[in-house]
Amino acid sequence: MDRIREINSRQLTWLVSVMITAGGLMSLPKSLIEVASLDAWVSEIGGVLYGGMIAFVLYQLAMRFPGKNLFEIARELWGPVIGGLINGLMLLYLWTILLRDARVFTDFIITLLLPRTPSDIVLYLLIMLVIYYGRSSIEVTARVNDFVFPAFGFLLAALPLMLANELSFQRVEPMLGHGALPVIGSNFLTIGWFGDVIIAGCFLNTIRNAKVIYHSLRHAVVLSAALLSIILFMIISVLGSKIAGRILFNTYSLVEQIHITDFLDRMELLVFSVWIPAYILKTCFIFIAFMHGCTSFFQSRDHAPITRMSGWFLMLTTLLSFDSLSETFNFSNFGAIAIALVLHPLILVPLIIRAYRHKPKKKALEPPDEVHYGSRRKQPKQAGSLLRNMLHQRTLRSWRITSNALLGTAVALIIVGVLFGPMHSIVGTTCSLGFGFCLLFAVLTTHMERLTVVNEAFQRKMRRKKNKQSDGAA
């Protein structure tokens, strides 16, 4: 465990996406629908902007301190005393997230799936899995997530198709017809969940190229927002905003409505057999980040000796933290905003202010070979798809401009919709649908950003290797 563990850009993207999406499916939809009613499904743009801002700050830190994570950067910039205090705040933030996730998972299982099972047993099983994965490295969690997240994302994206016979567009009308305050409040509410992107800072040392980290996080944020928007739209269009606002786990009620032919009427068992592993991997990802922070105090990369003790302490504090399910929901959605807006500035602002005194490294470290899975070739084949060739010919700058334009257009459409939607329903409907299309296309453009920056870094590495070989031959 002495060597630096490395993951690739796709694995980082999927880990951050499952961290935001798997947790947000449980408690977030109910609170968003309570605040914004019919307009809850356009509430993710605030979280996207906030998550993108945190991703940019982490990019600046990674560019100036390559090969170091957030805890190591804090100690190098501020020393062992102030840097240790900043790291302590980061550990406090990670612990609150672990408490929230462990309790939400336990309440969900004993409320809907295993009502006769004591909550202590469910929590004990979760902690056992967390300790098992926590004793390994981030590589293990990332590789397991490579199997889980594609199935998880596919099931979420396929919900409109599986529920096509149940949804009604009349339940989501009038779109953006209730004024600006509900939409502003719901977008503000998503900050608490998308702020979890800061946890990726604990693994800045696992990818050597700062640009790869930045564009991977951008894609993860936009992808998570698109998946959550699809879920919220389906909840409202199938269950209705009034019913969905009263149900605690309305995502489970949504999946129960899936009826494919006469014999596939228990699809919730299939869906949640994929969601539960995704949620466990999300918790393991955060727990490993906490372990990295703990080892930073001992100047060691081996966190295995304290993993078991930390897991049992997590179980104890989870059992003592909340008295009821309503407290858990309030802390998960409303308390998360206060925690994020208080702790994030205290952690990131001192780092970024002092980091700007350090000039970025002129020669950035390139990603290793495993960063570029499936693309170990110097040039794409010209005989492939014409559309694919056209996409790969665009530069990173053009993809980034396109993504920013799409996100800016989505924000502008929401502003126009909340201003004129209450007076003209056609304006609200047009702006809402335009927002949805912009968000979906932004998933594609940010994905191409990530692929382009990885391809460019890989080709630079191949050119340097070729030059060294030619110099050696000469």
In short:
The protein is an all-alpha fold and 474 residues long.
Written overview of the protein:
- With 474 residues, the protein is mainly alpha-helical.
- It has a single domain (9-352), classed as Amino acid/polyamine transporter I (Up-down Bundle), CATH 1.20.1740.
- Helices cover 73% and strands 0% of the residues.
- It has helices spanning 9-24, 28-36, 45-64, 70-113, 119-134, 138-157, 159-162, 180-189, 191-194, 210-239, 241-246, 250-256, 267-297, 304-321, 325-355, 386-393, 396-420, 425-473.
- The longest helix is centred in the last third of the chain and has 49 residues, at 425-473.
- The protein is globular.
Number of strand elements = 0
Name the CATH architecture: Up-down Bundle
Distance between the termini: 40 Å
Determine the mean pLDDT.
84
Taken as a percent bin, the fraction of beta residues is under 5%
What is the overall shape? globular
SSE topology string: HHHHHHHHHHHHHHHHHH
Q: Can you tell me the CATH topology?
A: Amino acid/polyamine transporter I
Unreliable runs? 363-384
- Please identify the top-level CATH class: Mainly Alpha
Keywords:
474 residues; mainly alpha; Amino acid/polyamine transporter I; 0% strand
Secondary structure topology:
Elements (H helix, E strand, L loop, with lengths): L8 H16 L3 H9 L8 H20 L5 H44 L5 H16 L3 H20 L1 H4 L17 H10 L1 H4 L15 H30 L1 H6 L3 H7 L10 H31 L6 H18 L3 H31 L30 H8 L2 H25 L4 H49 L1
